[in-house]
Automatic annotation (TrEMBL):
Origin superkingdom: Eukaryota
Keywords from the UniProt entry: Metal-binding, Molybdenum, Oxidoreductase
Cofactors, names only: Mo-molybdopterin
GO CC, any one term: mitochondrion
Protein name: SUOX oxidase
UniProt keyword annotation of Nuclease present: no
InterPro entries: Ig_E-set, MoCF_OxRdtse_dimer, Mopterin_OxRdtase_euk
Gene3D superfamilies linked to this entry: 2.60.40.650
Residue span, Moybdenum cofactor oxidoreductase dimerisation domain: 1-75
GO biological process terms held by the UniProt record: sulfur compound metabolic process
Source species of the chain: Rostratula benghalensis
GO MF annotations in UniProt: heme binding; molybdenum ion binding; molybdopterin cofactor binding; sulfite oxidase activity
């Protein structure tokens, strides 16, 4: 399966002040495959940034759970 992900912070419709923003979420894949990268777009898909994956790295073929990710970005 392709990687699936969800944004958990900020919440949908939240007012975001100018300055530094931290976007957080989780991602998962299928068949025990590890999530190795999450790309995030803050401008409707024009540009993409690579999020930082958190937590411990699973053994090969043992990635049966979701992976946390976060991205810090400047907001104008």
């Amino acid at each position: 399966l392709p990687v699936q992900s969800a944004i958990t912070q900020p919440r949908p419709g939240a007012a975001v002040p100018a300055g530094e923003l931290t976007v957080k979420g989780y991602a998962w894949s299928g068949g025990g495959r590890e999530v190795v990268r999450v790309d995030v777009s803050l401008d409707g898909g024009r540009t993409w940034r690579v999020a930082r994956l958190g937590g411990e790295r699973p053994a090969p073929g043992r990635a049966w759970a979701w992976a946390l990710w976060e991205l810090r970005a400047a907001v104008a």
